[in-house]
Each structure stands twice: as C-alpha cells, then as structure tokens.
Automatic annotation (TrEMBL):
<dbReference type="GO" id="GO:0008270">
    <property type="term" value="F:zinc ion binding"/>
</dbReference>
<dbReference type="InterPro" id="IPR050143">
    <property type="entry name" value="TRIM/RBCC"/>
</dbReference>
<keyword id="KW-0863">Zinc-finger</keyword>
<dbReference type="InterPro" id="IPR003879">
    <property type="entry name" value="Butyrophylin_SPRY"/>
</dbReference>
<dbReference type="InterPro" id="IPR000315">
    <property type="entry name" value="Znf_B-box"/>
</dbReference>
<dbReference type="InterPro" id="IPR006574">
    <property type="entry name" value="PRY"/>
</dbReference>
<dbReference type="InterPro" id="IPR027370">
    <property type="entry name" value="Znf-RING_euk"/>
</dbReference>
<feature type="coiled-coil region">
    <location>
        <begin position="133"/>
        <end position="170"/>
    </location>
</feature>
<dbReference type="Pfam" id="PF13765">
    <property type="entry name" value="PRY"/>
</dbReference>
<dbReference type="InterPro" id="IPR001841">
    <property type="entry name" value="Znf_RING"/>
</dbReference>
<keyword id="KW-0862">Zinc</keyword>
<dbReference type="InterPro" id="IPR001870">
    <property type="entry name" value="B30.2/SPRY"/>
</dbReference>
<feature type="domain" description="RING-type">
    <location>
        <begin position="14"/>
        <end position="54"/>
    </location>
</feature>
<keyword id="KW-0175">Coiled coil</keyword>
<dbReference type="Pfam" id="PF00622">
    <property type="entry name" value="SPRY"/>
</dbReference>
<dbReference type="InterPro" id="IPR003877">
    <property type="entry name" value="SPRY_dom"/>
</dbReference>
<dbReference type="InterPro" id="IPR013083">
    <property type="entry name" value="Znf_RING/FYVE/PHD"/>
</dbReference>
C-alpha cells in the first residue's frame, strides 16, 4: 500500500517545483505542471516550451485539469493528515521564497544557498545544483571538520593554559628558593663585613691600648726625672742660702748635683693612633679581602632552559644528571627532549672564553648553541642544527661532524673559546693551551654556552662545573 501511495505521489508531482500539483494544467504533449510554476518558467525562459520535452505549446494559458487537481488535492490532504502528528511540536521549515511557500529541495553549490524551484531554478541552470539532503550532508561533514579543528584548537589553548598554571606554581617555588638563596648570600656577606668590622675595631682598640701604655710609660719616666730634678733644684737653692764658710765646704757636692747628666726630654714618635692606617681606602681594602670569599664565574647556567633530568647547584655554576625527573613547566625556553642546559648570557659579537671541569664524567657535550635551536624535538648536536660542541662518549672524543678528535691525555678540564666575528668555536686544554679542535662557520644569531650531560654511572665526577675565576 505504501509503495502504491509513493508511486501516486510521484505521478502527482510537478516537475518544476517537485511538489504535489496545485491547479495543474496539461500541455498538448501530455506533461502536466502547476499553473503558477509553468507561467513562471515561461516568463524566465521567454518561450512557451514544455519544461520537460521542450515542445512548443500552442496555448498561452492552458486550462486547469480539474480531474488531476481533485486527485492531487485529495492526496495532498491525506499527506497533511498523515504527517500532522509527526510534525506536532516541530519547528516549521523555512521557505526559500517569499512569493512561493515552498520548502527548499534544491541547493546551489556555486552561490551556497537554497533555490526556489518556482522562480529561481532557471537562474541556476549553469550552476551546480544538488538536492538539499545531499548539500546538508556535505555541509555537515564540512562543519564536523571545522568543529574538529575548533576542538583541537581549544585543546591546544587548554594545554597552554595548563602550562601557564604550572609556570605560575613554579614561579612561586622560584620566588621562595631565590629569596632564600639571596638572603643566604647576603648573610654571608653581612657576616663577613660584621667580622671584618669587629676585626678592624679590635685592631684600633689594641693600637690605642698599646700606644696608651707607651705614653704612660714615658710619662712615668718623665715624672721620675721631674722629681729628681726638683730635688736637685731644692738642694742648690738651699746651698745658695748658706754663708761663706759653710757654702765653700759643701760647694763641690752641690755643684756635682747641679750639673745633672740627664738629657733633655724627647717626645716618642708615633704615639698617636695611625688613623690613616685604619680609615685609608677602607672599603677598597675590605673589598680586596672580600675577593678571597667571593668568586666570579664567566658563565651562569639558565635554570629555565634546564631539562627536568638536570639538577643545578645553588650558585648556578655546576650541573648533574639526576636519577629522577623533576616536574618542571614546559616553558618555551626549556629543553625537554635532551638533558641539556644553556648559559644565561648569549653572545652576538666579540671574543669570549670559559673553562669547564668535566673530570672523569663519561658522557657530555660542551660548546655553543644558537638561540633558535629546537629544544623540544629530535635534534642532532651538529652545526647543521646550530650546535657547535665537543663530544665525549665512552672515552672517545668527537666533533660536531662525527670526526674523532685525538687528545694526548684524558681531558679533565676544557677551555671553550668563541670568536664570533671570525666565526670560530675552538676547544683547548687549559693547562698548556694545547689546541684540540676548531670549527669555522658563519654565525647569524645569538649563541649561548651549551651543556648536554649524561648519567655519571660509576664515575667519581657527577657534576660538570664551570670553573670559577678570580675577579
């Protein structure tokens, strides 16, 4: 029954609008159309041909086929009755044209819009027109693809958001750790200055006491001399009061006492505090002494570039490969693929050098790296990828182009030397400046000291250190 009804509906469908006939008219070729559809079609094509077989019609206004109309109205009524319950509560489909209440069944791919089968169809004959269902299916697939792209982008933003959260938490740890280390360093300096202050105040007091004792000793001697001279003066004055005979009898003794052999008093030199010694260039002399406590490193490691496997010393001058990976944020600067760390200061001109103590560590790469090197993916440690270094693996030394480098004895310390303007990266044995290897290239961006550290294994040396240099 359903099949018969479907065939009947197809028979009663207009070939222009694809809907059930409304006021159908039949041409002499026996093809039937909605009256309004046919008239509209003729207006657009400017002829009276049949839309199906193209035969010219002899009638300008064909009469309505009432038999076909009655049958079409009857079927259309049953269709509305049958579909009323299924359409209850659903949103009415949007019509394409304000002139014809037609549900869209065709879609113009070229203009990306639905086509009115009555008034628009002939305007799209040269366009690609497909059924609405097919267009909807294709557009939904495209939209699904766009949705997938949006979802992927949202996931990327969520990952970046998560990384920023991790960076925020890590910054709090960095703040506390760095504050602690700054305070510790200044406490050392303050302790040194406090001890130096006390030492110099003590030296000042000791000099004051020593010179005070000297003055006291000299004053005691002076007082004794004054007392002795006062006694002699009194004796002579008494002698001068005697008469002739007594005076003459004691004159020689009195004269001997009056002619004292005591030398004139002399002030002791240097009796005052040597203020210049205590205050002269005080801050400079304290700074000179401070150099014994403070050291300068030509390279400081950048903890923000360090792989999670690497552990840096508090002063950021040494690094080792640990047994466990630290949970660090994946910020853009960080090396995540390899256990590497960069120096904090880059070079884009001039000459620079530093020494690295490697000891008997079995695996390391030491040299320079360009700023734009890939820090996240696969990257060979070679000039091709922007890394100029000296390798050490299992007692063998090689350069960045996989050539073996011969050394007289095992390297415990290496000097790395950069001449940026001449495009040279050189490696030397610092004890006698024996040349090990030089790579020549053209540098076009900033270069940073580079350290790639493997596991220490059974080696005594676990830390790779930048050698400290006196200021």
């Amino acid at each position: 029954m359903a099949e018969k009804l479907r065939l009947l509906e197809n028979f009663l469908s207009c070939h222009v609008c694809s809907e059930t006939f409304r006021d159908p008219v039949s041409l002499s070729c026996s093809h039937s159309f909605c009256s309004s559809c046919l008239q509209k079609f003729w207006e657009q094509t400017k002829n009276k041909n049949c839309p199906i077989c193209k035969r010219n019609s002899s009638k300008d206004h064909p009469f309505v086929n009432f038999t076909l109309k009655e049958l079409a109205d009857s079927v259309s009524g049953r269709k509305k009755s049958r579909s009323s319950e299924t359409e209850k509560g659903e949103k009415k489909l949007t019509v394409v044209c304000s002139k014809h209440e037609e549900v869209p069944k065709l879609f113009c791919v070229d203009e990306q819009r639905a086509v009115c089968p009555v008034c628009d169809f002939s305007l799209h004959q040269s366009h690609k027109v497909v059924p609405v269902e097919e267009a909807v299916s294709d557009l939904k697939e495209q939209l699904k693809s766009d949705l997938k792209s949006l979802q992927d982008k949202r996931n990327k933003y969520k990952q970046v958001e998560e990384t920023y959260n991790e960076m925020s938490e890590h910054m709090k740890k960095q703040l506390l750790s760095t504050e602690r280390q700054i305070r510790a360093e200044f406490n050392k300096l303050q302790q040194f200055l406090k001890e130096e202050e006390e030492s110099r105040l003590t030296a000042l007091r000791e000099e004051e006491e020593q010179k005070g004792r000297t003055i006291s000793r000299e004053m005691k001697m002076i007082e004794e001399q004054i007392s002795s001279l006062s006694d002699s003066i009194s004796a002579v004055e008494e002698e001068l009061q005697k008469h002739s005979v007594p005076f003459l009898s004691s004159y020689k003794d009195t004269q001997s006492r009056a002619q004292s052999s005591v030398s004139d008093p002399q002030l002791v030199s240097g009796a005052l505090i040597d203020v210049a010694k205590h205050l002269g260039n005080l801050s400079f002399r304290v700074w000179e002494k401070m150099k014994e406590k403070v050291h300068f490193s030509p390279v400081i490691l950048d903890s923000n570039t360090a792989s999670g496997w690497l552990y840096l010393s508090d002063d950021l001058t040494s690094v080792r490969n640990g047994d466990t990976k630290q949970q660090l944020p994946d910020n853009p600067e960080r090396n995540t693929k390899y256990p590497a760390v960069f120096g904090s200061e880059g070079f884009s001109s001039g000459k620079h050098s530093w020494e690295v103590e490697v000891g008997d560590h079995p695996e390391w790469n030491v040299g320079l790296v360009k700023e734009s090197v890939d820090r996240k993916g696969e990257c060979s440690a070679s000039p091709e990828y922007g890394i100029w270094c000296l390798f050490h693996r299992s007692g063998k030394y090689t350069n960045g182009v996989s050539q073996t480098v011969t050394v007289k004895k095992s390297l415990q310390r290496i000097r790395v030397q950069l001449d940026y303007d001449r495009g040279e990266v050189s490696f030397y044995h610092p004890e006698d400046m024996t040349h090990i290897y030089t790579h020549r290239d053209t540098f076009t961006e900033k270069l940073f000291p580079y350290f790639n550290i493997g596991k220490a294994g059974n080696a005594k040396t676990s830390d790779i250190k930048i050698c400290q240099t006196e200021i």
